[in-house]
Amino acid sequence: MKLLILGGTGPAGIKLVEEALAHGHTVVVYARSPGKLLESISQNAAVTVIEGQLTDVENVIRALEGVDAILSALGPGASHPGNTPLAHAYELLIAAMKQHGVKRLIALGTASIKDGSDKFSLAYTAMITGVSLFAHSAYKDIVAIGETIRGQGKELDWTIARVPILTNNDTREVVAGYVGDGVTKTTLSRAGFAAFMVEELEKNEWVKKAPLITAQ
C-alpha cells in the first residue's frame, strides 16, 4: 500500500516509517523538518518526502495523491500551544481525505481520550489527572483530536491507537484493550506502537474503535 505518514520525524514516527517499509509498503513522509529523518529513510527508494506545515492545505493535498491510508504519529510536544493546533490539523486533513476519497486513518492518541469501554483504573486516573494539571494544553489538544476524529471523521475508517508512557526498548509484543480491563499495562515501547499501527493497517481489527495499546 501507499501510505502517508505524519509525525514521521519524531522517535515514534521514525519507528513507524521503518516498520511500514519493512512490511513492503511505500511511504510518503510529510514533515515540517525533513532534515530530522534518518538518512536510511530519506534515501530509501520507497520513500517520498514532502516538506510542509500541517496547515498547508495545498501541500497536504499533494501528499495525499494516490495514498491508500494515513498513519499518524502526531503528538503534542513539551511546550505545547493552547490553541489545539493538532486537532485543527486533523480537521483540515479529514476534509482533504473526504475530498480525495481516502478512507483509512490510524492515529496516535492517549488515554486522555475517553472510551465507553474503559473502566476505572487508579494508575490511569492519576496519569490523566497529572497531564491535565501540568500539561493542560497538550491534554486539551489530545482530547480535541479524539473529538475531531470521532465527529468530523465519522464517515472514515478510523482507529485511534491510545498509548500510555512510551519507552525506547525494543519489545514489539503488545496487547490491545481498554483502560482498567486487567490486561493492559502502563507502558509501551515505540517499536511496539509501530508494530501495532502497521498490523492494524493490514488486519483492520479495530476500525472505528480507540483501543489502549500497551506492553504485554
What does this structure look like?
The protein is α/β, with parallel strands linked by helices and 216 residues long. The chain has one domain: NAD(P)-binding Rossmann-like Domain (Rossmann fold), CATH 3.40.50.720. It is built from 7 helices and 10 strands. Strands 3-2-1-4-5-6 form a 6-stranded parallel sheet, with helices on both faces. Strands 7-9 form a two-stranded parallel ribbon. The radius of gyration is 16 Å and the shape is globular.
Search tags:
single chain; 216 residues; alpha/beta; Rossmann fold; six-stranded parallel beta sheet; two-stranded parallel ribbon; 7 helices; 22% strand; Polyketide_Oxido-like; NAD(P)-binding domain-containing protein; oxidoreductase activity, acting on the CH-NH group of donors, NAD or NADP as acceptor
Task: Compose a concise summary of this entry.
It contains 7 helices and 10 strands.
Distance between the termini: 28 Å
Number of strands: 10
Major β-sheet profile: 6 strands, parallel
Oligomer: single chain
Instruction: Quickly name the level 1 CATH class.
Output: Alpha Beta
**Helices and strands: which structural class?**
alpha/beta
Return residue spans where pLDDT drops below 50 for at least 5 consecutive residues.
none
Beta-strand percentage range: 15-25%
For the biggest β-sheet, the strand order reads 3-2-1-4-5-6
Could you say what the CATH topology is called?
Answer: Rossmann fold
**Strand-and-helix sequence, N→C?**
EHEHEHEHEHHEEEEHE
CATH architecture: 3-Layer(aba) Sandwich
- The Cα radius of gyration reads 16 Å
* Integer average pLDDT: 97
CATH superfamily heading: NAD(P)-binding Rossmann-like Domain
Work out the helicity level.
25-40%
**Quick one: overall form?**
globular
Overall number of structural domains: 1
Organism: Rhodonia placenta
Family: Belongs to the avfA family.
Pfam families: NAD_binding_10
Protein name: NAD(P)-binding domain-containing protein
